[in-house]
């Protein structure tokens, strides 16, 4: 590939962010225009990748490889395959949507957009980096702007939430760094290159490999988040401003599960097989425990946050199955959760902006007052509870289908999550939309055009992948099949 | 492609109405009626062509939906006698119910939304019916559940409707888990989820076939409101009455029966699985019939009657006869839709549904009264109306049922079925008499007959309720059963006396009801009255199953959720915070150590050097005798040390 299109995608936001710094503080519309323009361009470029990607080719596409720090053999190495491309597109889509949703931010817009665009670069870079060193840099790069975005623009407990998020994730990253270094020194010649390390295999004693796997596991598990490392999530989600919650849930959680697919599994296939049962059990706990805790919530945003824990459990279940259906389901569920929960957070924000409360018992009967909002909220809630015809179902079904042959009992227990999911989402809809109208909200304003505009693209994909999942499965399937071959498990489905 | 259009046309109508419904206003129903008419026409054409000899796979259309490595999932639509039968019932009965809705829903603020939802329902239901694959069936299955949710909660401002729609969705979803698990089990074991060649699938499942079959039945029990998942259906009556007629009587709730009929090859190898279906169906049927006898809300009487009749169909299927179950499904769709629409007509006129406040309506509402009575007689099972023929099929199937270890199972099921038939005749006659006969019990009521848009569907459905049974009657050589190709005609044993028995039971039920509610004869001896009224209270509350579930399921789950949340906050997050605090504390300790000890040591070192120097300076007196003294003492000390003292 001649054009360094991936570099463009990754560094356009950063360039725009630096440009924002040069703009006078008061020119708010210019700042908004720069941020919108940059993220829109990134979206267009990644859409172009999405359509031009050839799933038939093995390996990576649009690869860029330049020596960077020669003495320690660090390369600036980017590339996408069927595994990362959906996530690059997801990140681009949500970054754009969340910029539009950021227009309501009033304070320190300049700093906000600088940090926001820096965050975008970090997220996009994580998904295209093919060098562990580079991956680690992007991974850590995400933390800093996120810390400030929560800590400055967040809710009442923003400082606690921000520092908790930062320290928790950083603690995980330390172990990842140790694992990366172990892999680096185990290879000859020493290399950080992910494809190379996969090809060579990590030449270490089995028990050392287990520790390496666990090091990666800890970093990724905190990010996903896997029970019991999940408690940073409700705090961070609730305190973060709406657009940042969208990115947190939509993209940051996926960095964790992407790590499993990109690094842990192919680098340490035997350990992945050994850990399959543990991963399945953790998936079950995430699904059912997350749903139960979500059911007990009185805060709308916290409920959505815990529903994320439950949904990410399906991703884990799909992964633990070590089957084509399971892997496809997990990856699809990652994408779906991004757009569906992203949409849910936007809708929580819409309501909060108008009512300044998220207490579920404070609403009631809004369905008759704001029918369009009610329709959109019902749509995303139904997608989230896995209604067929919408994309959430396909991901969850495939994850279960793929987990069942490997862990039948775990799968049978996990389907309980589907009933619990229906229960807490329908209860939420009832509390907010149904019943007689709470007179307090008799003057509530309907959802605005701008807000609908942020939701429309997400709805489009929820419907598209719900009705016609073949398109994205065709795209991601070959990469996942190759990974399965690597794992060398006898696979059905 | 024609097949795709049958559910496709209502889907198009849904899309049009959801986006342009408000602008279309009063034209909305005609969009959906036209679309559904298209589906009626297309199914009729397939129906006609299928009357000629054809192979079930002849009308089949499929496409790749999930490409999954070596095992792609292809979904498709299939028209065979079973699906075409169901298709015909859904589209034709549905069309008239939709027509009726124009009158019933007139003036509702969400008028066009109602028809949008109905269209979505038809699209989903027809997908379910025509699916050639368990996964596609499951998709339609869940989507009809959504439509049921939306339509029960159509008047969502009413708290009762808001509760009922949630209850319906969650309860049926508990059932859906069974179907989902069956899908996972069949997929893993056979790798083939197609609904064609199910007997081959059954043989490949081997000993797992009954397990899969019972999981499917669990799903069917949710949708068709069988014990123990029946609790949602009576509450579903909070929806508009045409919805009750269409979804909660004629079509959607019958989907469970259809599913069992469709997957019957999985049940057939195992007499135990069949017996479970028959027993659950029979028990539900009897239970719900008793409850129907005690209700005073016209729609709730019909709701329990629906549960009972669905149980009756399951009983027929459990006896291994898809023909009997499906035949009753068809006749029931007609007479129960008619009864519900008749009830709707009454409610439309009176604005309440308590039979204790009705009476004497036949004068003001002759068409409604006449058609409702006809539907009641059809359901009671008086020949030659439709219910008689299908019930007789079920009686025959029950009598012929044989189980290797329980030789009396057939007789027991037959007895149960007869009891149900008796109760059915009793409660429906009671409903007719309390509603239409005698003097009016409400002086303030000003009933009026409904408009033609409502009475014409009543008349059409009445004609169907009367006549549709003939297609399966011996008079026409059991055409319907042959069309389904389900089983060979029954042996010579006893259809004659079974028919006589069936008529006698129905007549007894009607007669007793007539004595009690028509002529006012007190049937219970005075001495038993207190016990009787206590029992009636218990039965009236449907055996208090709802309260039981509240105590045993809902409350514990709620408590568990709260406990999990508090565990999450106190223990897990507590641990995180504790770790954070420990880190903070450790860093404070370290800070103190740094300041006091380490820094202190550095500083202290300087101080020590200084002090030591000062102290040593004392020794350096510059006086030789002092030096000599020190040297001497040191030598002695050294000597002593070296000597090992």
Could you give the topology of this structure?
The complex is a heterodimer of chains A (493) and B (645).
Chain A lengths: L4 H18 L5 H25 L8 E9 L4 E7 L4 H17 L7 H20 L3 H22 L4 H29 L7 H7 L5 H18 L8 H8 L2 H26 L1 H6 L1 H20 L4 H22 L2 H32 L10 H4 L1 H14 L6 H13 L4 H7 L1 H18 L15 H19 L2 H18 L6
Antiparallel strand pairs in A: 1-2
Chain B lengths: L1 H23 L3 H24 L8 E7 L6 E6 L2 H24 L6 H20 L3 H19 L6 H32 L7 H8 L3 H15 L8 H4 L5 H10 L4 H8 L1 H4 L3 H24 L3 H21 L3 H29 L10 H4 L1 H15 L5 H15 L8 H28 L15 H16 L11 H6 L10 H24 L10 H12 L4 H75 L4 H20 L2
Antiparallel strand pairs in B: 1-2
Helix pairs in contact in B: 1-2, 1-4, 2-3, 2-4, 3-4, 3-10, 3-15, 3-20, 4-5, 5-6, 6-8, 8-11, 8-13, 10-15, 11-15, 13-14, 13-19, 13-23, 14-15, 14-18, 14-19, 15-17, 15-18, 15-20, 17-19, 17-20, 18-19, 18-22, 19-22
Short account of what is shown:
The complex is a heterodimer of chains A (493) and B (645). Chain A is mainly alpha-helical and 493 residues long.
Can you tell me about this structure?
The complex is a heterodimer of chains A (493) and B (645). Chain A has 21 helices and 2 strands. Chain A is mainly α. Chain A starts with a helix and ends in a 6-residue tail after the last helix. The mean pLDDT of chain A is 92. Chain B has 25 helices and 2 strands. Chain B has a two-stranded antiparallel ribbon. In chain B, strand 1 and strand 2 form a beta hairpin.
As a whole number of angstroms, the C-alpha radius of gyration of chain A is 21 Å
Arrangement of strands in the largest sheet of chain B: 1-2
> Into which percentage range does the β-strand content of chain A fall?
under 5%
Q: Give the strand line-up of the largest sheet of chain A.
A: 1-2
- Tell me the helix content of chain A: over 70%
Strand proportion of chain B: under 5%
Rg estimate of chain B, integer Å: 37 Å
pLDDT averaged over residues of chain B: 87
Largest interface: A-B, 60 and 53 residues
The mean pLDDT of chain A is 92
Helix and strand string of chain A, N-terminal first?
A: HHEEHHHHHHHHHHHHHHHHHHH
Shape annotation of chain A: globular
Helix and strand composition category of chain A: mainly alpha
**Main pleated sheet of chain B:** 2 strands, antiparallel
Portion of residues within helices of chain B? over 70%
Q: How many β-strands of chain A, per DSSP? A: 2
Q: Regions of chain A with pLDDT < 50 over 5+ consecutive residues?
A: none
| Straight-line N-to-C gap of chain B | 112 Å
- Number of H- or I-type helical stretches of chain A: 21
Apparent shape of chain B: elongated
| Subunit arrangement of the protein | heterodimer
